[in-house]
């Protein structure tokens, strides 16, 4: 994701990150007498997510008397992925790493990751049945499992239940009714606008933010049953579904239902201040909405196209084994155990807004009691990851290219037709430069 909240690192994580130079040099050691049992774990989780991961890892660590888990927190995005690739290519990789599922196609085929052994996983209660179908299927590259999902994080609609009640929009269960068309969605926005007395009913922050534009587009495009093929020699896509999806986005930011001049931070603030009744947002924003004591509801982004297809953009943080030429099998076994402990203790990750991927956690009464998490948890069963390619995925230039083109439609500077043609040309250039495997 590209919009994680930022907060000062804890003292523990600062000390862990301070050891990065030694780790990259291949000479990192743990406490005296325990260096052979230390599991190094690289990830890119900071802010609230970093604190929750630290909580989960600390508990997992306490349950492993024969090992210690050393976290190394690196900068989000390209810096992290570059260092992870370099460590794997140079034979100095950590024992465990985090990779977004959407980046797997750029790492697994090139030998930067080692596959997970299904028999080993089974001994720790981990296998296909413990994950949703999208998470398990997407973890497989060339017949082998390379990623174990920690979560699903998707794009949803958060809404203010107090404003919705004031507008008379809530059904008997206290939720917004199912929306089935663009006109119904726009009518909902107009009702929220009446309730707030402000300029708009919805907020969608997208200015200078290709990731935000991509998330809503990929949701609508996938709801058409369409996909992208980026693995051949030429970009293959559904031009009609592409155009209708972008036109739907443009229609929503009409200046009445939602503004076409709002960035991410402004949209978030407008929602938290009660200036709008609904926001298009990633589930990772849930903690700050709850901290603001908002009367909060949430729902999956509705299908407005009459196709009957449930789909939403989503991604997953996944556990991977960065490639090691001569792995220490005792430490690798401990890495398997560490991941199993983290997955089984991942309920706090659900409190961060994410839906845990390990299904025994999702099925607990404790997770089901979380609101509004449980109202959108079903999206984990039908999320659509980014189309696989070496140049797509979280924090990629692909999203930037998409944003550069589609933003101009939403702000009225170009036509949908021209935008589609422009993006096709750009993707064909990316594909011509991509490494073929």
Automatic annotation (TrEMBL):
Coiled coil: none annotated. It comes from the Bacteria. Gene3D superfamilies: Periplasmic binding protein-like II. SUPFAM superfamilies: Periplasmic binding protein-like II. InterPro entries: Bact_solute-bd_prot1, SBP, TAT_signal. It holds the Pfam family SBP_bac_8. This is Extracellular solute-binding protein. It comes from Nonomuraea insulae.
């Amino acid at each position: 994701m590209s919009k994680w909240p930022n907060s000062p690192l804890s003292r523990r994580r600062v000390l862990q990150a301070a050891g990065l130079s030694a780790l990259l040099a291949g000479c990192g050691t743990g406490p005296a007498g325990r260096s052979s049992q230390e599991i190094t774990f690289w990830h890119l989780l900071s802010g609230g997510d970093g604190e929750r991961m630290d909580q989960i890892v600390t508990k997992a660590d306490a349950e492993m008397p024969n090992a210690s888990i050393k976290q190394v927190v690196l900068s989000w995005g390209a810096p992290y992925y570059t260092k992870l690739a370099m460590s794997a290519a140079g034979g100095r990789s950590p024992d465990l790493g985090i990779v977004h599922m959407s980046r797997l196609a750029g790492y697994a085929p090139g030998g930067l990751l080692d596959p997970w052994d299904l028999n080993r996983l089974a001994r720790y209660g981990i296998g296909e049945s413990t994950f949703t179908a999208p998470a398990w299927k997407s973890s497989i590259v060339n017949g082998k499992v390379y990623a174990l999902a920690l979560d699903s994080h998707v794009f949803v609609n958060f809404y203010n239940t107090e404003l919705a009640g004031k507008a008379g929009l809530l059904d008997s269960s206290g939720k917004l009714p199912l929306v089935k068309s663009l006109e119904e969605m726009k009518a909902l926005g107009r009702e929220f606008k009446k309730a707030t007395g402000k300029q708009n009913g919805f907020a969608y922050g997208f200015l200078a933010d290709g990731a935000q534009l991509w998330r809503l587009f990929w949701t609508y495009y996938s709801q058409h049953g369409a996909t992208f093929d980026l693995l051949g020699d030429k970009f293959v896509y559904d031009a009609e579904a592409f155009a209708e999806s972008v036109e739907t986005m443009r229609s929503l930011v009409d200046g009445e239902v939602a503004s076409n001049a709002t960035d991410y931070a402004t949209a978030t603030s407008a929602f938290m201040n009660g200036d709008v009744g609904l926001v298009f947002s990633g589930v990772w924003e849930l903690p700050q909405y709850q901290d603001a004591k908002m009367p909060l509801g949430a729902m999956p982004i509705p299908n407005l196209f009459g196709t009957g297809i449930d789909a939403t953009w989503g991604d997953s943080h996944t556990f991977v084994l960065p490639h090691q030429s001569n792995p220490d099998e005792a430490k690798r076994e401990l890495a398997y155990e560490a991941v199993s402990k983290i997955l089984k203790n991942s309920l706090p990750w659900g409190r961060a807004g994410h839906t845990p991927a390990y299904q025994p956690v999702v099925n607990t009464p404790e997770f089901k009691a979380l609101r509004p998490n449980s109202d959108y948890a079903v999206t984990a069963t039908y999320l659509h990851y980014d189309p696989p390619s070496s140049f797509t995925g979280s924090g990629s230039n692909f999203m930037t290219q998409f944003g550069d083109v589609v933003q101009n439609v939403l702000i009225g500077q170009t036509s949908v037709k021209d935008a589609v043609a422009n993006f096709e040309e750009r993707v064909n250039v990316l594909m011509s430069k991509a490494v073929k495997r």
